[in-house]
Structures are given as C-alpha cells and as structure tokens.
Amino acid sequence: MADSSSSSPSRRRETALRFALASVSNMAGATVTNPLDVIKVRMQLEGEGMARRGKHVRHYNGLLRGMQTIAREEGVRGLYKGLIASLLREAFYSGIRLGSYEPLKELLGATDPAHTPLWKKIVAGACGGVIGSAFATPLDLVKVRMQADVAGTRHASTRQAFADVFAEGGWQALFRGFGPTVQRAALLTAAQIPSYDHAKHTLINAGILAEGLPLHIAASMCAGLVAALVTSPVDVIKTRIMNQSKHHSHHSHH
Hints:
Structural class: mainly alpha
Strand content: under 5%
Number of strands: 0
Helix content: over 70%
Shape: globular
Distance between the termini: 67 Å
Radius of gyration: 20 Å
Largest sheet: none
Order of helices and strands: HHHHHHHH
C-alpha cells in the first residue's frame, strides 16, 4: 500500500518532467531552426503567388539562396520573424504531443518499451499530435502570418497579430486551417515518434548499435526523413490556408 502511494507522486513527477522537457527542448530547437521555417513558409506560398500572377521565376531559389535573399532584403531579423509565436506554439504543441506519448502508449497496454507493437506507437503518436495541435492552432496561424510577411507591415507584434486575426472573424478566424493542422500533426507525430522509437529498438535488438549518442542520431535521422515525406503535402495546404485573411489578402507576397 505504501509502495503504491509513494509511486503515484513519483509517476506524476515523471510525467510532468516529460512534458516540461519536451516543451523546453523543442523551444530551443525552434530558436535554431526558425530561419529554415521562414524560408519553408515563403517557398510554400511562392508557388501560389506565381500561379496567380502567371510568373515562372522563383524569388526564393532554393534553401540557401532563399535564406540569403531574405537576409539581404530584410536583414537577419527577417529570418527570425514569427519567433515568439513559434516558441509559444512549441511550448503547447510539442510539449503535449511528445509529453503524452509514453502515457498514451501505456493506456494502450504497452508494458515493454523494447517490444511494443508498432501500431500502438502509431496510435499513441497520432492521438498526442491531434491533442497538441488542437490547443496550438491559433499560435501556428500567427506564426505563419508573421513569417510570410515580407514587408513587415502586416502585424506590428505577436500580440497585435492575435488581435488583428480575431478582428477578422473572432475565434473562427484564429482556428482557420484547423483541419489540415490537426491532420498534419497526427501524421507527423504518428510518423516521427514511432519511427524514432521503432528504429532505436530495432537497432538495439539487432545488435547494430548500443545505447548512446550514435544510436540516437541514427534513429533521429530515420524519424526526420519519414516525418518529412509523410507531412510535406499537408504542410503546404496548411500554410496556404493559414496565410489567407478574411478578404484573401496576399499583399505580403512578392
């Protein structure tokens, strides 16, 4: 009885720590990768603008050249547009989707981490992604709007961006793109975390790698590749929907 009562607070602390570490680690990652996120959003929206204007010359010609273009035209700060919204998004979205993965696996009956069926990992990942994205959709929308703003005149600040979007159509406007966002999150988390988890334990069980940094790097590379391949089409749709204002203004595009 004493063991049960002492283990319960310990489990709660462990779960809380898992959520906190997931939030902090992904916020740190978002700070480093924000320039990549900005150029990704610009390139995703550029195809839409080219089709509308009948142009066939890309302004952002590839990843590195695109980043150079943004730095030259908007300064280094241009590569960090939407950073505050991105950090807030990661605190909720990634904290929930990654922090809830193990508890959700356990709810599905997973008791042995080394031999958990793949389907349980996929279902746990998808559920965590859906829950996290449901909370973070407004933050994701503001992040996309600010990263897409070439002139830097669309929103004066992150707080003003929320106010501007809310003024367009209330809560409905803040949750524009909810469907594709949730679908992307479900696909991403269902692909990313189980791929990492499964690749790691497969490498260990096969005797290829032991627990350590090389194992985590190899598993992370597998997970990143799978997640990117699975989510790219939905990510483009999500970005384009979120960038649309009530009157379908695209004045922030080139």
